[in-house]
Design goal:
Elements: E1 3-8, H1 13-24, E2 29-36, E3 44-47, E4 50-53, E5 55-56, E6 67-70, H2 75-85, E7 89-92, E8 121-123, H3 127-143, E9 145-154, H4 161-175, H5 207-220, E10 226-233, E11 240-248, H6 254-263, E12 267-269, H7 281-284, E13 290-297, E14 304-311, H8 315-331
Bound molecules: 3-amino-D-alanine (2RA).
3-amino-D-alanine (2RA) binds near residues 126, 128, 197, 208 and 313.
Length: about 325
């Protein structure tokens, strides 16, 4: 039976993608209500050929809705409880509730069963975490992961539509001998890399780096896994890439790893170095899957692997994962009728 869905933050980059993914995956939407701040109210968006006007979010936006998809920011703190009180299941893409022990943190390919114990709110993990754990899970199941060393190459759209505007405006200005001061990023991002995403925290790691550690532990139900991350912003429009070094308990050959990953849900292996085939952000954007290539044994340790993992962070890293969680709620009969 059809499900009434509210999207909060509908007019932003993730909001647009949520609408698109609901349509593409043919989610059984009954009524779709698009909500945002007063600044974006009145904008018109389209869903399945229908024009829908964005309204300002109020507690009553959730009356009669069964699922509320929150695109990000502080809105879920402000309106999440009101949505839950009105019988909605909240799927929240912000970091507000991710580490709350009362809130499941779900990647459907990894821990789908966790949606079943929700108490009204389900959190969608951080984009770089989602992309990594989809690739880690089948390896963990097959060989047990002891330790992960990850370095990310994160696209500017991870910082929203303004990140894209800054990269394109700055690139154009610099190529033409002009200037374009940094705004969204701490330094010039055109023709540069910035090893700094989100704020610095404990031990001089950034919040983005801690998210990759703590969220992975929660999603994988294994806080003994050693994880260390360096997260870097790169001048790419869309799709995050990650160099992932893995130490396993049981030795896996590159060939075994390739087979395991190729059979795993949500993964496409692109790994034929002789034919110059490996995943790249340019070719992984607008796709729902996580792409893995450059699969190699790391023979500096008894059982080590290197992977290159790429995923569209607005799709699988945000909107697609959220819609997949909604699909699980339908499948498990977790929604109020
Ligand atoms: C980024 N991970 O790429 C963030 C977005 N949530 O900036």
């Amino acid at each position: 039976s059809p499900v009434n869905v509210a999207i909060v933050g509908a007019s932003g980059a993730v909001g647009h993608e949520l609408v698109k993914v609901l349509e593409e995956r043919n989610f059984p939407v009954g009524e779709l209500r698009l909500c945002a701040t007063s600044r974006s109210a009145g904008k018109v968006m389209s869903f399945k050929g229908q024009s829908l006007t964005v309204e300002e979010t109020t507690p009553d936006s959730f009356t009669g809705m069964q699922v509320a998809l929150f695109a990000g920011g502080s809105a879920s703190k402000e309106f999440g409880p009101a949505a839950v009180e009105r019988g909605c299941v909240v799927i929240d893409n912000s970091s507000n509730f991710r580490l709350d022990p009362e809130v499941p943190l779900v990647v459907p390919e990894v821990n789908p069963g966790d949606v079943k114990w929700h108490k009204g709110i389900i959190a969608n993990p951080n984009c770089s975490t989602i992309i990594m754990v989809v690739a880690l899970k089948p390896i963990h199941d097959a060989a047990g992961i002891k330790r992960v060393v990850v370095s990310t190459y994160q696209a500017v759209s991870g910082a929203g539509a303004e990140g894209i505007a800054e990269l394109s405006g700055q690139t154009g200005a610099i190529v033409n001998g002009g200037e374009y001061p940094p705004g969204k990023f701490p330094y010039q991002i055109a023709f540069n890399l910035i090893p700094h995403i989100d704020v610095f925290q404990d031990m001089d790691y950034t919040k983005e780096e801690w998210k990759m550690v703590k969220e992975t532990h929660k999603i994988m139900h294994d806080s003994s896994m050693g994880i260390t991350a360096t997260t870097v912003r790169v001048p790419v429009y869309r799709s995050h890439s990650e160099s992932v070094n893995i130490e396993t308990n049981k030795k896996l050959t590159a060939e075994q790893t390739r087979t395991i990953l190729a059979q795993a849900p949500g993964i496409i292996v692109v790994d034929d170095p002789r034919e110059k085939k490996y995943p790249m952000p340019l070719f992984c954007s607008d796709k729902d899957e996580v792409f893995v290539g450059r699969i190699r044994e790391d023979n500096s340790i008894p059982s080590g692997l290197n992977l290159w993992v790429v995923g569209d962070q607005i799709r699988k890293g945000a909107a697609t994962n959220a819609v997949q969680i909604a699909e699980l709620l339908v499948k498990y009969g977790c929604l109020q009728v």
